[in-house]
Every structure is written in C-alpha cells, then in structure tokens.
Amino acid sequence: MTEESDEFDVVVLGAGAVGENVADRASRTGLSVAVVEHALVGGECSYWACMPSKALLRPGDARAAARAVPGIGAVGQLDVAAVLARRDEVAAHWDDAGQVAWVEGAGLTLLRGRARFTGPRALAVEAADGTVRAVTARRAVVVATGSVAVVPEVFAGVRAWTSRESTSAHRVPARLAVVGGGVVATELATAFSDLGSEVTVLVRGDRLLASAEPFAGEAVARGLAAAGVRVAFGASVTSASRDDDGVHLVVEQRPVSGQGGQGETGVALPGRLTVDEVLVATGRRPATDDLGLEVLGLRPGDALEVDDRLQVQGVGGGWLFAAGDVTGRTATTHQGKYDARVVGDVLAARFDPRPAAEAADGAVPHGLSRQGEADAAPWSRYRATADSSAVPQVVFTRPQVAWVGPTAQGARDGGTAVEVYAYELGDLAAASVTAADYAGRAQIVVDTSRDVVVGATFVGPDVADMLHAATVAVVGEVPLSRLWHAVPSYPTLSEVWLRLLEAAGR
C-alpha cells in the first residue's frame, strides 16, 4: 500500500561510490536530489570489494617489501587476527552511519528501500517494513545499481563464496579453491595465501589476466607459484558438492600450451579436489533484474546501453541515465566515478533551476549550454571519452600489474598501427635501492601515425603509483617528442620513461 509520495528533480538509484558522486555533482546548481538504497550506503567498494580486499592484501605486501631489503632482519608470519581486525575497521564494521552522514550533509535525500519503475520518471520505493513510497523525478532518473557476482549453476547448493563472502570472512580456510583467472581471483588468491590458506586457482583458459598484456599474466602466475599457490590452467569444474568434510570439486583439465600455461607455471590436478571453501570469481553482471525496466521497454537483466553523456538509449524523452557497472562499459570503481562525474555535471547544467542571469554568472561550466549539450571537443568534460580510450586498471597481486589503454594486440585489432617498446625495471638504478632482487617490466604502445602513447603496462612491486603518469600521457595525447622533455627524478622507477623513449629512438 502506498502511504507516502515525493517529488525530486533527480532520483539516483544506488548509493554506492558511483551513485553518491552522481548525486553530489547533480545537486551543485540547486537541483533537489534523492538517492535510493536498499543495502549499505557506500556500496560494494566500501564494504565488499576495493577497500576490504586491499586491507587484506596490504600486510603481505609490506612483509614482502621488507623481506626484499637486506639489513632489515627476520620478518615473521602475519598476525591473522590483527589483519582481519584492521580489515573490519577499513570496512567500517559494515556500518554505514558515516556514509549516511555524508549524504545528508551534502544536502541529498536518502530513501531506504528497493526501487522499481512504474512508468517514465515514476518509481515505487518499498522500505524494509513494507511501506511503499511513490517517487517522481521531475527531471531525470539515474540508474547506478552496480553489478552482482555470477555464480555458475554447477556451484548451486555448495554455498560458494563470491567476492562478498571472501572479503568479509572472519575465518581463514585451511584449503581454498579459487575459480577464475581475473582480477578478483588473483588478488584474493594472493591475500588468502598470505593469511595461511593452501590455495588452488582453477583457470578455464591458458593464462591469467586475459585482458592485460600476456607478460603481465605470466608474471602474476610466477608470483603465485613462488608463494605456494597452485595454478591449474585449462581447468573446469564439472560438479560440486558439500558435506562435513568440505567442498568436493570434480575437475576436468585440458592440455594447454604457450607461455604462462601449464607447461611453465601451471600444475596438473587430480580429477577430484576437496577444499574447505570455494571462491567463485568468474565474472559479474549488471544489477538490473528487479528494477521494473520492462515498463520502459527495456529488458531486465541486461546492461543499460548509454551514449557518452551516459543517457540510456532506447528510452524517449532524454530523462533516463545510467553510470558504472550497470552500463557494461567499465567495471572499476574509479571509472564508474568518472562516469558519475560526467552525468552529474550534465544534469546539473541541463536542468539548472536558477534564473538565466544568475546561471550565466560563471555558474554553468564553460563548454556546456543551459540545455546540457556539450561542445564538439572530443575531450569535453561532459562526455565519457575515456571509457573507450583510456581506462586504467590496477591489480594488487605480487607483482602488481597496472595498465591503461589497449594492449598492443587490442590496438592492432582496432586498426591502429603501433610499435611496442619495453624496458626491464630491474635494470634501473632505483630498483637496486628498492629491493635486492627487484624484477619488473614497463611497456608502452605507440600509435606510429600520431607518435603518441595509446597504451602502457607496468609489472613489478609498487608499480600502481606509476600508472597515472601514463594515463595523463594517453589522455593528453602527448607526442613522444614532448615527453622527452618531461624529466624523471633520479633515482626513481619513473626513470623508465627515459629508457622507453630511448628505446623508441627519441
């Protein structure tokens, strides 16, 4: 039964990092904005993904860094209880009071409940107590409901872990199977190995991190093997069951070849594997199943196709937008927040409620009309251009992997003629200061027609902080001749830029 009714200029579905940023930016010209959330305000990243996973990984990273430097002395085992306690603090003990205070302090309205479309710009928000509130958006609705883990049917009934259960676990299983070979799989395999689990990674393909340069996956495979993690390539789980002895997996394994495959770092498994827990990290899908999209002519469960303004295609009137994982464009928090800034700024300007004279007094950002139509510049702040050309990614394994833009093969497949230049980070002077046996690699992909960097990959300890310089070079389309004049400090790992330019003949 509907008991309450409300109207807002903008309604944002989802109060994760993406939704919060949309709402904040959209409200900056005076629009009234409501945010609807049925779970914890702050979303997946704060409680079950980015933050708790990095809290689990950081102690092992610090221990490895200390062990690599002569003179520090013995570095012992991790204090598991202390690591988990610190993780709990980072995840705010799964209490969103702090995030709620931020939302309210920003002048936004928080609506607790599940939202479903009942028509254009019309929603029903059902609270936990069954109360239903009719909510109308006068101007726009933004869907920022994120994504959910995909758990294959074979794992039904075994209470498999996903990223949620693993990042919030309060015990460390003695034996853990990780199914998958991507970012979540490799990071959590690293974290639980650090904490003392006997970890086996089951990879359907023949390498890890399939979307990265091949040498990156090879380095991570070697790092996992060195840590005692068993990595099985070409492995598929055909059945799974659970009893008092654990989770029993029947595994089929096909032969694989090539670098990074079974012949180099992988292991051959028996047909049956018994573990205490199985973590399924085989992908995610947009969380659009239960939003009532059918009343808008859209199919529930599908990604919402958007243009570079993040306006949903196939819905008339220009009122429906989406940002983050739900669009299927990107799948990282930082890129989702980028999309959120774009759509929030578009809404703030397009539906600016202030009188024209007041809005013209510097309040509407340069390059955007009062109708919210961006200028023709390819890198207008009102277009999510980076989603197609400059997406950065960091994997906090050991070694770390960081990249931006396409791989060399991806660029060629897209029709760009490129040259590739690489340098071993261990040959830099800074490497000998950082660790006695520092190993890593940097590579840039150069568009030969424009003489600009379109992609870059770094592999090695602590390379995550090197990525933004490459991202700036890619987004700025800086010619190599100009990069030559960006002098790297000595002795730092950033000196690799000089070596890469020298390899390119500059």
List keywords for this structure.
single chain, 506 residues, alpha/beta, FAD/NAD(P)-binding domain, Enolase-like, domain 1, five-stranded antiparallel beta sheet, 21 strands
Overview of this protein structure:
By secondary structure, the protein is an alpha/beta fold. The protein has 3 domains: 172 residues, FAD/NAD(P)-binding domain (3-Layer(bba) Sandwich), CATH 3.50.50; 130 residues, FAD/NAD(P)-binding domain; 105 residues, FAD/NAD-linked reductase, C-terminal dimerisation domain (Enolase-like, domain 1). Helix content is 29%, strand content 25%. The strands form 5 sheets. Strands 1, 2, 3, 4, 5, 6 and 16 form a 7-stranded mixed β-sheet that branches. A 5-stranded antiparallel β-sheet has the order 17-18-21-20-19, with helices on both faces. A 4-stranded parallel β-sheet has the order 10-9-8-14. Strand 17 and strand 18 form a beta hairpin. The longest helix has 18 residues. About 2% of the residues have low confidence. Its cofactor is FAD. This is Oxidoreductase. Keywords: FAD, Flavoprotein, NAD. Pfam families: Pyr_redox_2, Pyr_redox_dim.
CATH C-level class of the largest domain: Alpha Beta
Helix content: 25-40%
Report the average pLDDT across residues.
93
What does the main sheet amount to? 7 strands, mixed
> Rg, please?
24 Å
Approximate shape: globular
Q: Uncertain spans, ≥5 residues at pLDDT below 50?
A: 259-263, 362-368
Number of domains: 3
Q: What's the helix count?
A: 16
CATH level-3 fold name of the largest domain: FAD/NAD(P)-binding domain
N- to C-terminal distance: 71 Å
Keywords: FAD, Flavoprotein, NAD
Domain Pyridine nucleotide-disulphide oxidoreductase dimerisation: 391-497
Cofactor: FAD
Protein name: Oxidoreductase
